Predict the structure.
Amino acid sequence: MIATIALTLSHFQAMTLFALLISVAFGFLSRRRTSDRVKYIIWSLFLFLLIGVGIGWAMYPFSR
Amino acid sequence: MSEEATTGTTTGLEAGTETATADVATAPEHQQGNEVLAIAIGVAGWLVPGLGHALQKMWGRALACFLTVGALVFLGVGMRGNVFGSEGGDAFGMLGYIADLGTGSFYFAARALETQGSDVAHAEGDYGTRFLAAAGVLNLLAALHAYEAARGRKA
């Protein structure tokens, strides 16, 4: 059933989905209060994306 | 859990010598029982993502673990990532197998659902492989967290 659904995601979409899911899991595991969890998830997601895009740009000169 | 045993011993000493002796004798058994229960909760959390937390009535964490691990597996399989088997051969194949096994029962669901096999020749397939491995490692972390919570550590 699932194998017939071909997921075609761009690099950025895949990275964003990955970052969101991991951030949510870490937020729930490491914080107790809802407000702390929300803050943690947003901050973690932001850092994931910032560092991911940053490393992408850092590798750009060597990509070809 | 061990804190309860210590408190019990102190109360016994205040009450009288006989009670204190009885408490000291049962404390190691009590601790051993808790340790076995904690291990069982950890294993349950590994087999079914979130179950370890659900057994301790940590509903939010249980739901978060189940949904995030499930979504990572779903996306990984949907992108046709490589679900490693035990016959991997090289060290990287074995490491991938161990990481994938971390998802517990979801590993078998992933193998059953990926009927067309993996396609790591494209970027999606390669990403899918990482999603599956991350799901396994994340679930192992969650199971360890549930185990520590069951032992009475602050979680």
